[in-house]
Structure formats: C-alpha cells, structure tokens
C-alpha cells in the first residue's frame, strides 16, 4: 500500500509519524473520508470544502492548495489500484497540527502533517441491507456544541469511541447519541433518519450533529420525490414510535435500522420509503460524481 505523507508517496512500512506530532499527542487535527464510484470521486468538492471549514475552525492551514487535491487523490488511487471498474476507492485525508514541542500552543508546530490513504471500499453486504441493523441509545452523551463544535470533523474521536464501545458490548451495530437536552443527534459515524406518517424526520444541525454530506443529499432527494422532510428536535420516544428508520454516510449510503434497544422499529424490516430513497440514491448518485478524466 502506498501512502502520501507530507510531500511524497511512501510504502506503508515507511509511513511513520513522529511521537511529537500533536495529532498523536492531543488529537489536534482534522480529516475527511471520501469514496469513489469506479474512477470518479463522489461529492469531491463538498468534502474538500468541509475539510477546509474544519481546518479554518481550528486555525490550521491546509498544506495543499484547493486545486491540488484532485491530482493527489487520483494519484493515491492509481498507485493502490483502486478506483477502478472492479474496486471503488475509500479515501481518507488526515491533516494534523504537525510536529512540535510538548504543549498546547499551536505555534509550537510550524508545519502540519498530511496523510492520504486510498484503500478498497468494503461496503456492507447486500444481506445487511436486506435485514437491517440494530442500534442502542448510548449512555454517553454527544459533546456539548458550545464546548466542541460538531461542525469540526476532528481527529479527536474519543466521544465516538466511548459510544462505540457501548454498542460492541451490547452486540449492536452502533450507538445513537442523545444531546445535552435528551434529544436525538446521530450515531458514531452516521446521520439518523426516521419515518413517521409518511414524513421523513431527521435531527436538526442545531441539535449538535455533523452536517453530513450524504445527509444533505438525502434531503434533496426527498424533495425531488415529493416526500415531506422535517429537520427538528426529536426524542427517543418519537423514534421508537416510528414506522421506519435508517442511517446515512458516505460509504454505506442508506442503511436500514430494524431495532433500537432491542425494540423493533415498525415491522422490524426495511420500510418502503427507505427502499424508495435508496433506489433513488442508486439511480442518481452519478449526478454528483466529479467530471470524467479527459483522455
């Protein structure tokens, strides 16, 4: 595997970051995960814009000009033989504060550390989509937005890891966070949607969630299909009374949820509106791929 580290591609065994890197010491950095369909990257500019917003929010200068990212991402795919007709690519960009003396002052780190990985994308199996997944509601609460903005896609993931440990202990697919007010937010790596009375419901950004790129696309698709969609403040009771539920993120698109805390949602199987939206996603995602490369 070839990894882009700072200014060159190196083999995996040589992709080493200093123990004095503030990403390692303090979780001081930002990242994005992106995918391709074949050779074309999905929602590329949206992801790169969010990476820039995250970096701006923590005062981190990205080491690549905005126009330089596409070439690096495609070089990473080509070197690792992903992003092909046979294998979609999973891409991760990580930018940390960089190497510096121990201490919290960002000025201790003169240069950020950049890592780009390109691996084969391994989406969930078709059986998982047909069956749906089980969630639990985590005891761990979502970070308070006034303490750490969820709009920063940060490498500091301990809040998510604590909730993921709860899911693993319960034998569930993932955990669902509540916020400081007891309202629904999101799962550890995905946004939440549910269906009630033929309406699509999802927690509002103000509840303390990341502005998911696939989330926004699903809301757009709902408008195209004439499905009423509401972003709001919802409780676990609202969710447990729902007819359908699903999760969304870049790599798995839409994942049906069959139960919450072992209680079935609706019939306990993927619902008709979930299937309709996922089909529309599959039929229309090509509209959101980067332009094909020139011959």
Q: How would you describe the overall organization of this protein?
A:
There is one protein chain. With 295 residues, the protein is of the alpha+beta class. Helix content is 27%, strand content 27%. The protein folds into two domains: 2-120, Aminotransferase class 4, branched-chain amino acid transferase, N-terminal domain (D-amino Acid Aminotransferase, Chain A, domain 1, 2-Layer Sandwich); 126-285, D-amino Acid Aminotransferase, Chain A, domain 2, CATH 3.20.10. Strands 7, 8, 9, 10, 11, 12, 13, 14 and 15 form a nine-stranded mixed beta sheet that branches. Strands 2-1-6-5-3-4 form a six-stranded antiparallel beta sheet. Helix 6 (213-224) links the parallel strand 11 and strand 12.
How would you summarize what this structure contains?
With 295 residues, this protein is an alpha+beta fold. The protein is built from 8 helices and 15 strands.
